[in-house]
């Protein structure tokens, strides 16, 4: 188990180092000058040069990389070119929106998907299964920005139960803040739940054909108990893998939903930073997301070991 | 469900009427598509900075009014010496910065010297280059000496980039702006909203609003439901597009179409063959059909222009007839230029709706005379690099939103690559003239030269589309400069 854990940790660390080089170099070749973006079309070339100096953009590539990488290790990401505040502050402001949103959406999607998957697998081939999977198919196919706008028109414009968008901040109280996250979380969760339900069903169906299930049934165990105790546990590995991927997506890939609900999340921070060529912000947030994905994968790997004792003793 | 809705509506009504006690509202939430990168108008070109702070939080010696006129602001009055080089400003008394310190002549000297100083990163540093010396006469009087007379000097002082800041707070204005205006900065929730509140002691007419919030809503499709749900009550700069139709017929809202200072042009690289040939540029001008372009790119809301000048300006002359839409004539000119079969060129388009949609229409119009354009969409930062800085382009489409900016055609190395000594002479003379009638005459000459030379394809003036609650009064209809002046805004009872 320790060797397994160590190996996973090493792979994670190596991924981070390689990613930092790739991210840094990739953004270097993107055309565009942050100083010119700041000063616009009326500023002279000499002035743009002056601002580049002030931003530290005229230093050699390797110096800038090492400065940045050294900062990353101590969680000092440097200063944003456009906002001129520490990048870590920007990230902190955004993560208090993106992280709870991702957690709520994932919880919601799991709460919907697992029972639906169980329900459909238990009735494989019958009307209940067909109906559940048809709904899930619609969920997979539906564009989430469209679904989000639909939610806004029903619950914000028509019923006026929740705000149409925006985020009042946690300072405004837990309830107003949560209220602002309900619709975005639902809009994010349902398409994910549809995918997860299909994966759960497929995994369960496969497990249900195994000999030990027949044995459990033969010794007189009720179907319900077989489902929960034997089938679901054995079907968990593909489900956990998908959940891990989904969490990473929910943390970073929610730019469209953030735009529809104008939420100040990480996705919009990166998008804005890219258009303004605020490279240091882009680099730092991307690295943070890489770290998040590596961590999530590590946790998923560990959870395999939890649900499957064989993985604990192997090696 | 209907019953549900009735109960809810009744409850909402009861709540609203009990708390508001019939008094007019004093708060306003405005939606804006782009977030300012920071809050210091003297350190960045982004229009969003001025759209929040100009006239609300920061004030200059002069200011620009809703019709583009120059008004006294922190300078109560001024005199100009006979040689037109020395301006003596009498400053307003009893003005305080929001941090409680007094506004004095030394603050003016500091602000102007900072903007023109060596380390200045003011995006409009050129505005301050003509200043030779700034002298504090006494705490209420300031004397500015220019290197040469400059007719537009008082106008220039009204730009957002020329607002007066205090030395103690200048460095922190990006995060916590401190000005002299009727509103003071309260909070900036990054990515979300900027809140201003009424300042405690203001020297001028008291404002009606107690609180104003600028909420960042990047997507037009999201801004409309925000307006419909009542979360936001005004969208002063709404993106052109289909979403407009949704509120146009709704009596709860006003849709106001105004003008801007945005001359939208088919930028042309005047030094690159074959565009260095006047006949080719004239052929392009004849091939363009402004009506079709305006309908397609602005929903019919733009105003056609024939030169680089805003139609609402008193010195405007209509030159749209210089090269009327005439395909046969255009083909004839191309033949005379030795290109009877047309040619291939590129059209680099920045990521704005009018450019991307307009670009496709321009390309199809020029194809009719055999000019085959390859459309290359570029990002904004990329556009500034390739087109604006490196001048690596044939044609592009962009709106030049700076007010009164016809002088850019006289700038050396500007990205149009246009150099006409006769035009430069007119601009030089304009700078030395302060008599309004004479200036107007020179502006007309300048417009005529650009139109005749067909420097760029002159397309249309960008419209300003504002949507707000029908009970909101006093927001600007036009946009003579980029600002959301809230000083006269109030709710009707």
Question: Which helices and strands, and how do they pair?
Answer:
The complex is a heterodimer of chains A (315) and B (493).
Chain A: H1 2-29, H2 34-39, H3 45-55, H4 61-73, H5 87-122, H6 127-141, H7 144-158, H8 174-208, H9 211-218, H10 223-252, H11 255-260, H12 266-275, H13 279-307, H14 309-313
Helix pairs in contact in A: 1-13, 5-6, 5-8, 5-10, 6-8, 7-8, 8-10, 9-10, 10-13, 12-13
Chain B: H1 2-20, E1 27-32, H2 47-53, E2 62-64, E3 70-72, E4 75-80, E5 86-91, H3 105-116, E6 131-138, E7 141-146, H4 153-156, E8 183-189, E9 193-198, E10 211-216, H5 220-228, E11 234-235, H6 245-248, E12 253-268, H7 278-287, H8 290-298, E13 303-304, H9 327-336, E14 343-349, H10 353-367, E15 371-377, H11 380-389, E16 395-400, H12 421-431, H13 436-453, E17 457-469, E18 472-473, E19 490-491
Parallel strand pairs in B: 1-10, 14-15, 14-16
Antiparallel strand pairs in B: 2-3, 4-5, 5-7, 6-7, 8-9, 9-10, 11-17, 12-16, 12-17, 13-17, 18-19
Helix pairs in contact in B: 7-9, 8-10, 12-13
Protein name (chain A): Peptide/nickel transport system permease protein
Membrane topology (chain A): Multi-pass membrane protein
InterPro entries (chain A): BPD_transp_1_N, MetI-like, MetI-like_sf
Describe this structure in words.
The complex is a heterodimer of chains A (315) and B (493). Chain A is mostly helical and 315 residues long. Chain A contains 14 helices and no strands. Chain A has a single domain, classed as MetI-like (MetI-like fold), CATH 1.10.3720. The mean pLDDT of chain A is 87. Chain B folds into 2 domains: 251 residues, D-Maltodextrin-Binding Protein, domain 2; 206 residues, Dipeptide-binding Protein, Domain 3 (Dipeptide-binding Protein, domain 3, Roll), CATH 3.10.105.10. Chains A and B meet through helix 2, helix 3, helix 5, helix 7 and helix 12 of A and helix 1, helix 5 and helix 11 of B.
